[in-house]
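Dear colleague,

Thank you for sharing your sequence with our group. We've completed the structure prediction you requested, and as agreed, I am returning the results in plain text so they can be pasted directly into your records. Please verify that the sequence below matches your submission; if there's any discrepancy, let me know and we will rerun it promptly.
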Amino acid sequence: MARRAHCLVLAYPLQGHINPMLQFSKQLEHQGVKITLVTTRFYCNNLKRVPPSIAIETISDGFDQGGPPHDADSHKAFIDRSCEVGSESLAELLEKLGRSKDEHVDCVVYDSFFPWALDVVKRFEIVAAVFFTQNMTVNSIYYHVHLGNLQVPLTQHEFSLPALPKLELQDMPSFLLTYAQHPYYLDFFADQFCNIDKADWVLCNTFYELDKEVRIISLVYVHVLSYSFHSFVNKETYFNAFLVIQNLKVNTQFMCCCDIIRRVA
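Please find the predicted structure tokens below.
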């Protein structure tokens, strides 16, 4: 029996991040890819309705007795600690799985809230895909903050950003409006893009009807192709499109995510 490609999916420990990454995992599994879903040791107790065919592994984020805090000061400490401890724990997991020929990881799909995961994965020379769970308009706005194209605190009432429709103040993410009180949160969201140029693939949680006014090229300023995988995802499914970029280069041959992962196995 031929070995199946093995994809490790690293999800941020919040339900709004777990759900889309789990749905994505189910679609990859439907295409014959072996899936291991990874979350923190604390959050693992909250996982429900994960198909038995999807393996579950955990890593430590340094807060095994409690999840992410809600106030800014504590959240910053959580992120700093999870970067340090999570990097070591993820490396240990990849090493453990790599000792088995059948369990060797061919691709890691990681939540964009864990940018440090990319550095770990690249040390193992494994293909890495960053997964953005928020919609593309929000992602694009945060990306322009990262580039410095959008300065905070906001002093305008209308905003014109490349490849986006004209936005008004009430259209902006709330963390831009509260930057003076809580600057850390916006910095956290902008940091999702700190090493995105090193990712092999960029996956976005969206479908055309949701973001039809957004030309997705605004995210990375390269040619992007949108896939609507109607052959195995219907209109009622939460995921009916994935946007894929390979190596952030123009004129690249684009393929479905599942085909890519099978190819690198």
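Summary note from our side: Confidence is low (pLDDT under 50) at residues 216-265.

Kind regards,
the structure core
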